[in-house]
Structure formats: structure tokens, C-alpha cells
Specification:
Helix content is 48%, strand content 18%. The protein contains 26 helices and 29 strands.
């Protein structure tokens, strides 16, 4: 019997070639989208899932409540030792909490001086490499394979450095030859290779080519921030809430007693951190997981649209299959046999569609990786992948073939063979409901595409309050870290071709200033010595400042605007010692009236406000503008050199900078970043979402149009004689086309009306992740609806004009 089913199915496919091609292409388009989204989602979920101790590996985070506001972050509470050396309050948590088997600090973040590539040198070979700092238990916790050395000693030596295979091969040829050898760091310190680890897999959220002992940061290098994360490995079957309570009991006596400010420690499973890193009410809940959910929903939507398309096309052919059903039933075929026959045909079509899908996926995966910025391989060697494909194929076939199988198998043979085949009002409404549902989903995708594209363009093109074009920065290092070297570089570079202006800042403009709060301990990096106070400050007032230090020409170089007061000036001898500038947001939050001339104290320095900067963005538009406080430090041992190039002369400017840099700083490779390119990187997720939304919306509309074509085909087959009679009675082609269009356009209008509020709600929820965003304007729905109607008319017109042009003699011949 199975052999007979397959043979009949192939005969039907060959006999109705056009119908079969449309069905297979429609299903294949849906499957391609599903498969690509499946691969992307799997890749996202695979991040940090390779660690052997993953079930017991946690990230420590802190929840801070201050003045009615609750916030959270992954930083670790600071303390200052009696020797005034900065440290962490949780350094001894492993000894205080028995359930903590190992603990490891790890440095991260733009705010650190090592947030940029650092220079390592051996002889004449030197490279800039990304690295970090970690404490001695790091390799005991994480499953980064060591090719040389061991986890016990890899980071135990303050003079040691653990390097990657890539780094070992660059400097020494092999990992084994690297062990015990010396590398020059930043042309001022020597570190001995204590371990070589395998190159990090793409599934790792932590990215580094080398690791220094974190104690070396406190004793041998400059310490500037607490942007360290703490990871802990808990004992098997440890109760997480109990461990959190014990850590908090250990922490609380060490915290500064600030009225209205509380700090609580929480634990998040490490492998969840990549997808759940956005804090909501002080706890990590949102983040990239939102995109996983969105695109998983999109995959389901498109698969449903493809299945509805199949149902409509199969129903459109039901009149021609009805007599076959009648004859089969007369000859003794049961309904279950017929259902098996039609389900078998649907699954066969799904398998052919999957075959086409695999061919196209192999061809398109490089483009998809370029779109998403990933390196997703096709997991053909994994049995689970093939099982997933089999499941998707069978599910699609069963879902797509369900309605046609149940409908056709229910037909009564007596009515069929008499030539009387009529569909009940319920079945007609069901098919029309499928069309409404199908175009409703397509409408939601169209609106989402427009909103995401608008928001992505907005955040990339929005004026930030400064001119980011023709602006680049160079890290302060080597000779640039001293006054003479920086002054000479600025003097020589300013005179070179293509250079408009040179100045400095403690951070790059798009990552300016970590938060410092005036209430000791209330913000990310607050300590007693860093507290910021001001004239007229109310008791217990709390403002999360973003402090930064700049050169005298910073405001002019950045093209910032002054709302009030004046800029820093070399002609004012006191500007270096007691002058501050703040932005408008700082004035608002400080509650200052007539702020010019009011005193401010920061960085153990007391001075006066000389100018108010108009607000400008120092981070992405996901965040609101923060209060900013600025002072002048023309010479610093860290930070960046900012360079404004002349428009259209980038090539000359880079050549000039390379020449001057090579003369003044010969021991460091010349490295630079353009601000506009760095700013765009802040929105990689939104760019990927915009691109994928565009593609999926086009696919959804294309599949929906195929489904609509099926419904038009069904309608014309049902009304063939009606069309013939109308033509005999004088109806024109235009009137017949209008007759068909009216019914279908009504369905599309219903779909638009139902989908619009759903799309409005969904996109407003998505936009909540941005502090600065576009509005979901009415014209977006009007444009999406007009586009859907136009595509509908185009699809309907093709088939209805074809039906209207048929000779009525042929339509009525049987009468």
C-alpha cells in the first residue's frame, strides 16, 4: 500500500507540474528561513556552553538601591586598604563561604586602560594584542585547554603571562618553545610565559590572547578602575539562594554606611550571561535573548505562512481531486486510507522542499554569515542536526497537509460523482480566515521591518552633539604617556598635511567616563576619595556623574556647543587647577541655579564651574545622557589622543600620523580607530536585526502571495460557469476582475486592521530598549497596508484576468 501511495503521489506531482513547483518553492522558502534562524539561534545559545563546570559556574552581580532607584551591574564592590591600594571586598569570599570551591576575578570593559590592544615585543617582532587580567583560579574554573603549563601555576606568578597558541606561534614558533621565555610588555616590563592555552573558540564570550595575573595590576601596573567581574564555582548541589545570603552576610559589614543606599550580591549562571546581560530592576533579565525570542517567533510565523500557502493551493486543486476521492470510496477505500494518501503526498512535497532547502542553504550560508557577522558552520556531521531536519520536514508536511487531507477525505462519493460539489459556509470562512491570518503575519513583519530600519538609521545618523566625522583616536602609550612626548607629537602632527587639530581625552568620545557617584558606594566606582560635591548640594543628594579629563582644545576639536559660560583657556592660569565644566544634564540633576562660578570638588580637587556644555552623547542611544563633569589635564599617562582630520584628506592624514608616531614612539605599532566606525559597532545587533527583518519580510510577502494565488485559483475554478454566464450577459473583463478583487481586498483589509495594533504594541515594546528612539507613526501602517494591497492587486489581477479572458463557450459547453 505504501508503494502505491508513493507512486500515485509522484504521478500527481508530474501531472500538475506548475502546482507542484509553486508548492515546493513556497515550502522551501519557509524552510530556508526556519533553518537559518535555527542555526543562528543555536549559535547564540551555544555561547559559553562548552565549559565542563558550566552547571556550577556563576557570575557575581550587584544590585544597588539608592534614593528610590534600583540598578544593577557586574562590577565588584571596591574597598581601599590601609595602604590606600585599591582592592575588592569579595577577595576572600572563597574562604568565607564553604560552598564556593574556586573564585576568579577577570577584567573587562572599555573603561579600563587595557580596554585597547596592548603591545608585546620580542626582539624586532612586536604586535598589538587583545588581553586581560585574571586571578589564579581562572583556568581551574573555565575549560580553556592548556597546551603547555598547568592550571595551578598558569596565573600564580605575578611576573607570568599566559598566552594563546596564536601568540606563541607568532613570537616563538610553537607553544612548547614559548614556555619560560620572556616577552616585553609595553616596552617597560618583562613577563615570562607561564602557560600557553588553545586559541579561544568562537563560542566563548570572553575574548583574549593573553592573561596577566590580576595582582600584577595592583603592584606593577597602573590601577584605574574596579571593572572586574567575579566568577565563582560552587560545590555540587549547592543551593544558590543560600550561597547568595552567605555572600551578602560576608559583604555587608564591609560596605560603607550610606543612608538610603543598599548593595546586594546576586549570582547568575555564567552561560546565561551572554543572552541575559541587561539589568531590569537590578537583576539581569533582558538582553540578546530578546532577539532570540523575536527571530524564533519569526521562524514559526514564516513556517505557518508557508503551510497555509500549501493548504490554499491544495484546496484550489480539490475540485480536480474530488472525483478521484469518489471513485476510491466506491471501490472500498476507507477515510483513513485517503487521509494517509494525502498526508503522504504532503510529506513527499515537504521532503522535496527540504532537498531544495539544503542546496540553497549551502550556497547562501557565506552570505548569511556576512549578514550576521558570525562564523556559523553547517553541522552536517551532527546526528542531532539531521534529526532536527527530519522532524522539521515531517512536521511541515503534516501541518501543511492536515486540512486538505481531512477535507478531501470527508467528501461524500454520491454527491461527488453526481458532479455536485459545494463547500459549506464554515469551510469557506476557514480558508478565508487562513488568508487573513497569513497576511496579518506578513503585515506585522512589514511594520517591524520599517520600524527597525528607521530606528537603526536614526541611531546611526543621529547628531550626537559633536562632530564624529573625520575624527580618530590613538591610544596614549609609550612616549605619548609623558608630557614631553605628547607635546612634541601634538606640535609636529598639527603641522602635517591632512591634520586639522590634535588634543587628548581620558577616554574615547563614545565610551567617555565611568560612573562616579557623590554618595560613597552608591554607584559603580564610587569611593570616599572620589566623591563629588558641589555648592548648594542637598543632604543625601545622589548624582551618577561621568567624569573625564581633557586637553585645552577638546571643546573646539569636538565641535561642542556651550550653553553658558566659557571654554578652558591656556591664558587663564587657574584653569588647570580649579576649573570645571559640566553638561546641562549635570546642572539639572545637581539642582543648580546660576551654576557659573559655583564651587565643585572632584578628584580631591576643588574648583569652580566656568562653563556649561550643551548635552552630547558619550555612549550609545540605548542610554540616556548622563551628568558629565570635565576638568583639564593636558598631560596624563593614559587615555587617547584625538585627531581631527581635514575633510577629504584621510589618506594624507594617516600617512602624516604614521610618520610622526614612528619617530616619537618607535617601540609601539601605529594603531588608530575612527570614531564613526567605533560608534557603528555599538549597534551591531540592531544592524543584523534590520537586515534579517528585511529579508524575512520579503520572503513572508512572497509566500503569502503564493497562497493568495492559490485562493484565486480555487475561486476561479469554483466560479468558471458564473464567469461564462456573466460574459454572455455582457460583463467586461474589468468588471469581472473587479468582482474578484473586491472579495480578496476585503480579506486583506481585515488582516491589516487586525495586525496593526499587534504590530504597534510589539514595536513599542522593542523600542523601550532605547533611551532615544523614533515613534511608531501612523504612516508606517499606511505604507505597509498600501504595499500589501498593491501586491494583492498584482497577484489577483494575473489570475482573474486570465479567467476573464477564457472563451465563455468553453466554460458553458457542459451545460
Amino acid at each position: 500500500m505504501l508503494h502505491n501511495y508513493v507512486k500515485i503521489a509522484f504521478r500527481n506531482l508530474v501531472k500538475n507540474t506548475g502546482f507542484s513547483v509553486i508548492n515546493i518553492v513556497g515550502l522551501a522558502l519557509g524552510m530556508i528561513c526556519c533553518l537559518f534562524i535555527f542555526l543562528w539561534v543555536q549559535d547564540e545559545k551555544s555561547v559559553d556552553n562548552f565549559h565542563a563546570k558550566g552547571d556550577n559556574l556563576y557570575t557575581v552581580y550587584q544590585t544597588i538601591s539608592a534614593n528610590g532607584k534600583v540598578d544593577g551591574n557586574y562590577s565588584t564592590p571596591l574597598r581601599v586598604t590601609p595602604s590606600q591600594r585599591t582592592g575588592f571586598m569579595l577577595e576572600d569570599v572563597k574562604n568565607a563561604v564553604p560552598e564556593v570551591k574556586h573564585q576568579a576575578f577577570y577584567a573587562t570593559g572599555y573603561e579600563l586602560p587595557w580596554g585597547h590592544p596592548e603591545t608585546f615585543q620580542r626582539g624586532d617582532t612586536k604586535f598589538k594584542l587583545e588581553g586581560s587580567r585574571a586571578s589564579s583560579d581562572f583556568f581551574k574554573i573555565f575549560s580553556y585547554p592548556l597546551l603547555a603549563g598547568n592550571a595551578e601555576t598558569a596565573l600564580s606568578d605575578i611576573n607570568g603571562v599566559a598566552i594563546s597558541r596564536k601568540m606563541a606561534e607568532r613570537f616563538f614558533g610553537t607553544p612548547q618553545k614559548a614556555m619560560g621565555k620572556s616577552l616585553r610588555y609595553e616596552n617597560r616590563l618583562d613577563f615570562r610565559v607561564s602557560a600557553v592555552f588553545e586559541n579561544l573558540p568562537v563560542e566563548s564570550s570572553l575574548k583574549f590572547d593573553f592573561l596577566l595575573n590580576w595582582e600584577a595590576q595592583k603592584t606593577k601596573l597602573e590601577w584605574s578602575s574596579n571593572e572586574f567581574r567575579l566568577f565563582v564555582e560552587l560545590a555540587e548541589n549547592a543551593n544558590v539562594p543560600t550561597v547568595e545570603n552567605k555572600i551578602n552576610r560576608f559583604l555587608q559589614p564591609r560596605l560603607a554606611k550610606n543612608k538610603g543606599v543598599t548593595t546586594q550580591i546576586g549570582l547568575q549562571r555564567f552561560r546565561d550571561q551572554y543572552l541575559h546581560s541587561t539589568f531590569v530592576n537590578g537583576k539581569p533579565e533582558g538582553g540578546r535573548i530578546e532577539y532570540v525570542r523575536i527571530f524564533s517567533g519569526v521562524a514559526l510565523f514564516i513556517l505557518i505562512i508557508a503551510c497555509i500557502n500549501f493548504m490554499n493551493l491544495a484546496t484550489a486543486r480539490s475540485v480536480k481531486r474530488a472525483k478521484e476521492v469518489g471513485v476510491r470510496k466506491v471501490l472500498g477505500s476507507t477515510r483513513s486510507h485517503l487521509i494517509g494518501q494525502f498526508f503522504g503526498e504532503a510529506v513527499l512535497l515537504a521532503f522535496l522542499a527540504m532537498l531544495l532547502t539544503l542546496i540553497l542553504v549551502v550556497l547562501l550560508v557565506p552570505t548569511f554569515n556576512q549578514f550576521t557577522g558570525k562564523q556559523i558552520p553547517l553541522p552536517f556531521a551532527q546526528g542531532s542536526f539531521w534529526l532536527s531536519l527530519l522532524g522539521l520536514t515531517v512536521l511541515t508536511g503534516l501541518l501543511a497537509g492536515s486540512y486538505p487531507a481531512l477535507f478531501l477525505s470527508s467528501l461524500q462519493p454520491v454527491r461527488i460523482l453526481k458532479g455536485v460539489l459545494r463547500f459549506t459556509r464554515g469551510s469557506v470562512w476557514f480558508r478565508q480566515g487562513l488568508t487573513v491570518f497569513q497576511f496579518g503575519l506578513a503585515m506585522i513583519l512589514l511594520v517591524a521591518t520599517l520600524v527597525v530600519s528607521r530606528q537603526t538609521n536614526y541611531v546611526q545618523q543621529a547628531h550626537l552633539g559633536y562632530d564624529r566625522e573625520n575624527l580618530l583616536y590613538i591610544r596614549v602609550e609609550g612616549s605619548l604617556a609623558n608630557q614631553r612626548g605628547y607635546s612634541l607629537f601634538k606640535e609636529l602632527a598639527s603641522k602635517m598635511p591632512g591634520i586639522a587639530m590634535v588634543d587628548r581625552s581620558s577616554e574615547a568620545p563614545h565610551t567617555m567616563g565611568f560612573v562616579v557617584d557623590d554618595n560613597d558606594g552608591a554607584a559603580e566606582t564610587a569611593t570616599g576619595s572620589d566623591a563629588i560635591n558641589w555648592e548648594g548640594k542637598e543632604k543625601n543628594a545622589s548624582v551618577g556623574f561621568k567624569p573625564t579629563s581633557v586637553g585645552f582644545d577638546f571643546v573646539r576639536l569636538m565641535n561642542l556647543k556651550l550653553a553658558e559660560g566659557r571654554d578652558f583657556s591656556r591664558t587663564n592660569a587657574t584653569d588647570s587647577s580649579d576649573a570645571f565644566m559640566v553638561n546641562e544634564e549635570a546642572v539639572r540633576q545637581m539642582g543648580l541655579k546660576n551654576p557659573i562660578g559655583k564651587w565643585v570638588s572632584a578628584w580631591q580637587k576643588k574648583g569652580h564651574i566656568i562653563g556649561i556644555l550643551k548635552d552630547y552623547h558619550t555612549h550609545s542611544l540605548h542610554e540616556p545622557i548622563k551628568p558629565l563633569i570635565v576638568d583639564v589635564k593636558e598631560y596624563e599617562y593614559f587615555g587617547v589622543v584625538l585627531v581631527r582630520t581635514e575633510a577629504g584628506k584621510t589618506k594624507e592624514a594617516l600617512a602624516s600620523l604614521r610618520k610622526v608616531y614612528g619617530e616619537i614612539n618607535p617601540n609601539y605599532p601605529f594603531d588608530y580607530q575612527f570614531i564613526d566606525q567605533e560608534y557603528e559597532r555599538l549597534y551591531r545587533s540592531e544592524q543584523v536585526m534590520a537586515k534579517l527583518s528585511n529579508v524575512f519580510a520579503v520572503v513572508a510577502i512572497l509566500i503569502s502571495c503564493l497562497g493568495l494565488l492559490g485562493l484565486v485559483m480555487f475561486s476561479t475554478e469554483q466560479r468558471t460557469k458564473e464567469i461564462g454566464i456573466r460574459k454572455v450577459l455582457g460583463a467586461s473583463v474589468g468588471q469581472i476582475v473587479t468582482l474578484f478583487s473586491r472579495d480578496f481586498l476585503r480579506l486583506i483589509l481585515i488582516a491589516i486592521l487586525i495586525a496593526s495594533p499587534i504590530a504597534w504594541y510589539a514595536m513599542n515594546q522593542w523600542l523601550q530598549g532605547f533611551a532615544y528612539k523614533v515613534t511608531v507613526a501612523w504612516w508606517i501602517f499606511a505604507l505597509s497596508g498600501a504595499g500589501a494591497l498593491a501586491i494583492t492587486l498584482l497577484t489577483i489581477s494575473f489570475q482573474s484576468i486570465k479567467a476573464a479572458l477564457v472563451n465563455p463557450v468553453k466554460s458553458l459547453r457542459s451545460e
